[in-house]
Amino acid sequence: MSLITFQLPFNKHVLKGDRYRKECEAIVLHGAGKSSMNRFVRLRESLNDNGIPSSSFDFIGHGETGGNISDSTLHGRTDQAATVIRHTCIEPLTLIAASMSGYTAIKLTEVFAVSNLILLVPAVYTPRAYDLSFGSEFSAAIRIPGSWQESDAFSIISRFKGNLLIIAAEVDNVIPMEVIERIYSSAKNARNRHLHIVPNSRHVSLFPREQDFIVVLNMIIDVWRKGCDNDPVQATPKTLAS
Which contiguous run of DSSP H or E holds residue 48? Predict the structure, then answer.
C-alpha cells in the first residue's frame, strides 16, 4: 500500500507527513534532536503489514516540516500532534511515541480516547518547561536536577485506563531508569501494563540486534490486538489543577 502524503497549516508553518490510509488507527511520534518520522519507516511498514496502518509527521524544526526549532515548545508539540490526529486518525487511538514525544503522548491521553499507549525510551518534563521555546531557557529548566520529578505526566498516566507498553534501553544516558520506573508504577489504573528493557541497547540505538526489533514489533502488535478486544476507553479527564 502506498503512502498518502499530507500538508497541514499550523500557525505560520506547514506540518508535513504521511499516512497509510485516510483514517488511521495509530500515529507514530518521533523524538527531539535530529530525529524525524524517517527514523520509524521500518516500524511503520512492519505494523502496516500486520494490519496496523499509521500516520506520522515531522514536528516543527524537524525533517520535511522544517522551520526553526525555537518556534516550538512542548505545548506546541502537543498541539501539532493533535492537529494531525484530527486530520488523519480515528479514535480510539494507538499512540506510539519516542523520547520527548513520550511526554507528548501522555498529554494527548487527556484530549483523545487512547486504547494503547506505547512509549519508546520516554521522557517527562516539569510543567515549568511546557511553554518555554526550545533553546537555552528550556534547556536550563529541564537540566535542574530532579526537575522531572515535578512532571504532571505521572498524575496524568495514573488516570489512564488503556493498555501501556514501555520500551526502555538497558543503558540510557538520556533518560534515567528512575523516570521509566516511575512512569510504569504511576500507571496503576492501566488495563494492562508492561515494561520491556532491550538488552545492550542505548537511547539512540534501541534495537542493536535484529531479534530485538522483532521482539518489540510483536509486543506492539500484541498490545494493539488487546486494544481491539477491549471496550473503548475515553480520554483521561483532566484534574482541576491541570
Answer: helix 41-49
For cell 504521511, what's the residue? 18
State residue 143 phi and psi, 5-degree precision.
-95, 0
Span 159-177, mean pLDDT?
96
- Considering the entire predicted model, what is its pTM? 0.94
Contacts of 8 (CB under 8 A, 6+ apart): 14, 15, 17, 57, 83, 84, 87
Beta-carbon count within 10 A of 49 CB: 10
- CATH match for 4-229 among 3.40.228.10, 3.40.50.720, 3.50.50.60, 3.40.50.1820: 3.40.50.1820
The C-alpha atoms of residue 58 and residue 38 are separated, in whole angstroms, by 9
E strand or H helix at 55: strand 54-57
Question: Would you list the domain boundaries of the chain?
Answer: 4-229
Total residue count of the chain as it appears in this document: 242
pLDDT of residue 226: 83
* pLDDT tens figures, 104-125: 999 999 999 999 999 999 999 9
For residues 139 and 196, give the distance between their C-alpha atoms in angstroms, rounded to a whole number. 29
Give the per-residue SS3 of 80-131. HHHHHHHHHEEEEEEEEEECHHHHHHHHHCCCCCEEEEEEECCCCCCHHHCC
Please give the DSSP secondary-structure letter assigned to residue 2: -
